[in-house]
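Handover notes (outgoing to incoming on-call)

Open items:
1. 4-deoxy-L-threo-5-hexosulose-uronate ketol-isomerase: sequence verified, structure written out, both below. Nothing else pending on this one.
2. Nothing else urgent.
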Amino acid sequence: MEIRYANHPEDSKKYNTGELRDHYLVEKVFEANEVKLTYSHVDRIIFGGAMPVDKELTLEAGKEMGVEYFLERREMGIINIGGEGIVTLDGIEYELNSKDGLYIGMGTKEIKFATKNAENPAKFYINSVPAHHSYETVKININEANPVKLGDNATLNKRTIYQYVHPNVCKSCQLLMGLTMLEPSNAWNTMPCHTHERRMEVYFYFDMVEDTRIFHLMGEVDETRHLVVKNEEAIISPSWSIHSGFGTSNYTFIWGMCGENQTFNDMDAVSMANLK
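4-deoxy-L-threo-5-hexosulose-uronate ketol-isomerase structure tokens:
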């Protein structure tokens, strides 16, 4: 498990491109037959990918967590972005097709990942955050997620936000998770942008062709930075940072949030006049 420490915004202003990427970008989320995770000290979110190809993978709690099993004091959300797969929780199997999701409550002891077809392996994208209560495990496919349609073609940001782990869909302690799909010929997400002081966020970009790139915007409102992101890479977005992006084509991203509350619309809007 890779560890990423929290960074003060004043320090981040001094980072060059390489340093920004080292602190905020995770370039390798999926590796064949591995569980790859990153532990961020920003609200102690753990995120990453499990990609079983020709063997079953088991999620283990490393020494970084100091517990007997991974979800002893945590909850988890999963969205499969690959082929058909199976997640087994304490002996109970859940089949997840592409873009199917799963909320897993605190206290689940054994978590295993498997693929149905090694030629088209499952890719289970994971978000896990600290929890204080055990809620029911719920499978959520994209048709059961709560859709929110925003934007239009004139501003290049026509998109649908699918809320998977959200109070409108299932109960969780603090995790919010879902995916946003931009329509063809649309490239902006979240502009005008915002911050949310009470919650951090992790972005995971996917459904991109090889030569497509995202210019992910971050930094404080009056001194922004950008990171160039390719397919299946993730960004840590602290509460003080804007989080927005523009792509060379349309794309999809999974967002995961944790922090003080679960109010999805609790954000501090940024006026275009103040953006620098």
